Amino acid sequence: MAAQDVLGQTARLASSSALLQVLFRVVTFALNAFTLRYLSRELIGVVNVRLTLLYSTVVLLAREAFRRACLSGSTKRNWTKTINLLWLTVPLGVFWSIFLGLVWLHLLEVPDPSVVPHYQAGVVAFGLSAVIELLGEPCWVLAQAHLFVRLKVIAESLSVVSKCILTVTLVILYPQWGLYIFALAQLLYATVMVMCYATYFVMFLGSPEATKKSFPIARVKALLPNFMEDETFVNWKEARLTWSFFKQSFLKQILTEGERYVMTFLNVLNFGDQGVYDIVNNLGSLVARFIFLPIEESFYVFFAKVLERGKAVKDQKQDDVAMAANVLELLLKLVLLIGLTITVFGYAYSQLALDIYGGSMLSSGTGPYLLRCYSLYVLFLAVNGVTECFTAALMCKEEVDRYNVVMLALSFIFLCISYFLTHWQGSIGFILANCFNMGIRIAHSTHYIYDYFKQSTHRPLTGLLPSPFLLLVYIFSGVITGFSEVLFCCDQGWMARLLHIGVGALCFAATVVTVFWTETKLIHFVRSQ
């Protein structure tokens, strides 16, 4: 597939994924606002922190490395061996579910049954849902590698909508069920996801459309593990790369979910405070999750397909290098401007957003300070997502192994800083520690990118330098909206709030106009792709 075609399909995949994440976040946003009025903070804290951490840890440890390794390179490979390798995620998921489930049940603090009933059932259900989801991993990788955009959108949309409908129904009818509600909803989510992928491939394989596309898998049976005579069960090059990525995934999970591990294992916050922190965290990460994550996932595929892993820039096709450098520069500029916008306007509108969303329970106390700090953290998340997706797509096995050593040291430092900052600043310490963590990771990735392109004429890191005039507009917008918050927000009635929103809207419009005026190359890229 030509590099330009890959870019077009990758951009569509990123756009569709971003729209999909908008749906997910909006639905989850509304669901949290709804459940806040029916369920306790403690129950929400156990579900959103303790049990979700169990599920995400099992899933990441079981499949993340396999995804990275099996999506590297072109789609022309021995897919039988790749599928065999992907099926190893299931026994690995069973192992991690049992091991971590025992830890969650017997080594961690158990919530008060009168406040959070049916904790044991919740642990079992969330672990089981992770294993169920892993059953669809070969289909997911095939779909992602061949850029099946609609399949991903439909499967994940149906899963989320089904989960939310069941949750709302049970919360209204049987609020006393406690964790049973979220256990059943999580199992439904995983089951619908796997059934969507399985149904699609059962219908697609052997069809005229599959033949027309020269799809490498011809029969449904080929999606199951297959032993081949006189050949190895898996591609050992992919298996070794998987092991390198596995070590990195383990460390990345600690860095990504570090604050949840500190909360879960060190008990620095009670379940109620964990619930508030998680709600603020979800609100603050809306843009990060529905824009930055789809861009990272989709353009990892693009860079892995266009450039060859482990090869120096001078040994690559120069047209592909030029395209990759241009795309990287524009992606950096795009996420930087989004991050700056969130940081600048998030500071002055955090208290108002929390007051509208959850009332005084969230807008009083540390809630607004948490969200303001998170607005700054979003800027770090924005840059790190793109720089790391490029380095992960290009690093050879030896470079991945060296990076794992860096990540190991960083993980230890991050956990220590999280613990001490939390004792000093409470839950805000988690966000400050995350900013430090992301800053170090950005420094490593940008150093790799600089070294990679230094033998060429391309300088994609210039995407991190917005125009001076645009920076000036951001500064003025931050100052004006800050004064507006002091004057109009948030205890002077709805008319004052509307005035505050109007001031923000004018400043935001001025910022957007300036972006269109100063960043014409970026605007053309977004419109064309």
UniProtKB/TrEMBL annotation:
<dbReference type="GO" id="GO:0005789">
    <property type="term" value="C:endoplasmic reticulum membrane"/>
</dbReference>
<feature type="transmembrane region" description="Helical">
    <location>
        <begin position="428"/>
        <end position="449"/>
    </location>
</feature>
<feature type="transmembrane region" description="Helical">
    <location>
        <begin position="494"/>
        <end position="517"/>
    </location>
</feature>
<feature type="transmembrane region" description="Helical">
    <location>
        <begin position="330"/>
        <end position="349"/>
    </location>
</feature>
<feature type="transmembrane region" description="Helical">
    <location>
        <begin position="153"/>
        <end position="174"/>
    </location>
</feature>
<dbReference type="GO" id="GO:0006488">
    <property type="term" value="P:dolichol-linked oligosaccharide biosynthetic process"/>
</dbReference>
<feature type="transmembrane region" description="Helical">
    <location>
        <begin position="83"/>
        <end position="107"/>
    </location>
</feature>
<feature type="transmembrane region" description="Helical">
    <location>
        <begin position="369"/>
        <end position="396"/>
    </location>
</feature>
<protein>
    <recommendedName>
        <fullName>Protein RFT1 homolog</fullName>
    </recommendedName>
</protein>
<dbReference type="InterPro" id="IPR007594">
    <property type="entry name" value="RFT1"/>
</dbReference>
<keyword id="KW-0812">Transmembrane</keyword>
<dbReference type="GO" id="GO:0034203">
    <property type="term" value="P:glycolipid translocation"/>
</dbReference>
<keyword id="KW-0472">Membrane</keyword>
<feature type="transmembrane region" description="Helical">
    <location>
        <begin position="43"/>
        <end position="62"/>
    </location>
</feature>
<feature type="transmembrane region" description="Helical">
    <location>
        <begin position="119"/>
        <end position="141"/>
    </location>
</feature>
<comment type="pathway">
    <text>Protein modification; protein glycosylation.</text>
</comment>
<keyword id="KW-1133">Transmembrane helix</keyword>
<feature type="transmembrane region" description="Helical">
    <location>
        <begin position="180"/>
        <end position="205"/>
    </location>
</feature>
<feature type="transmembrane region" description="Helical">
    <location>
        <begin position="469"/>
        <end position="488"/>
    </location>
</feature>
<comment type="function">
    <text>Intramembrane glycolipid transporter that operates in the biosynthetic pathway of dolichol-linked oligosaccharides, the glycan precursors employed in protein asparagine (N)-glycosylation. The sequential addition of sugars to dolichol pyrophosphate produces dolichol-linked oligosaccharides containing fourteen sugars, including two GlcNAcs, nine mannoses and three glucoses. Once assembled, the oligosaccharide is transferred from the lipid to nascent proteins by oligosaccharyltransferases.</text>
</comment>
<dbReference type="Pfam" id="PF04506">
    <property type="entry name" value="Rft-1"/>
</dbReference>
<keyword id="KW-0256">Endoplasmic reticulum</keyword>
<feature type="transmembrane region" description="Helical">
    <location>
        <begin position="403"/>
        <end position="422"/>
    </location>
</feature>
<comment type="similarity">
    <text>Belongs to the RFT1 family.</text>
</comment>
<feature type="transmembrane region" description="Helical">
    <location>
        <begin position="12"/>
        <end position="31"/>
    </location>
</feature>
